[in-house]
Amino acid sequence: MRVAIAGAGAVGRSIAGELLENGHEVLLVDKAPTAISVERVPQAEWLLADACEITSLDEAALQRCNVVIAATGDDKVNLVVSLLAKTEYGVPRVVARVNNPKNEWLFNESWGVDVAVSTPRLMSALVEEAVSVGDLVRLLRFSHGDANLVELTLPPESTLAGTRVGDVQWPEDTSLVTIIRGTRVLAPTPDDSLEAGDELLFVAAQAREEQLEDLLSARRAG
């Protein structure tokens, strides 16, 4: 898979390094000469250019990319890169970094964004997840379909503890995608049972989040 990353700062380089380790082809684009640190990610391709310029994106051959990641520290730049990647080059998947949570509402399909990642929101969510059992925590927002990646740690008193996944009447427009149990990551099957302390990851419509939280956190009688 070919991935172009706009922004070769610490965030962009970190993403590039991980993608390269997983066998992907990565191009880092940045307009600041000081950001071009080839020795830090030598396996990546590097391009000194302004990712908001069509000529630069032509040079980057964005039409050959499977994914574009707008990872600069400027939300305006990330929005422009996302819009150009989607509308001018038809990139199948566009991921954008949100620096200021107040701008998060802009990062949607109207601006070409498939997935918006707000670092401050993610950090606060991880803090909440660390101290909250039974509370739904929103980790990521997917623009298409108004869906979110959400997490909830199943409390011991939940009525669903010990219940088979296939026996649960999940709310409409929700899907259980992963169960994290201790150090294990499980792809849930209908025969798997839910256990207290399981970290459950769902893709869910925002309108169903409250209903999902009520279902998972419902306490046993008595």
UniProtKB/TrEMBL annotation:
Annotated ranges, domain RCK C-terminal: 137-218
Stored InterPro entries: K_uptake_TrkA, NAD(P)-bd_dom_sf, RCK_C, RCK_C_sf, RCK_N, Trk_Ktr_HKT_K-transport
UniProt keyword annotations, A-Z: Ion transport, NAD, Potassium, Potassium transport, Transport
Entries under PROSITE patterns matching the protein: RCK_C, RCK_N
Pfam family, one: TrkA_N
RCK N-terminal domain sequence ranges: 1-117
Database matches in PANTHER family: POTASSIUM CHANNEL PROTEIN 2-RELATED-RELATED, TRK SYSTEM POTASSIUM UPTAKE PROTEIN TRKA
Descriptive protein name: Trk system potassium uptake protein TrkA
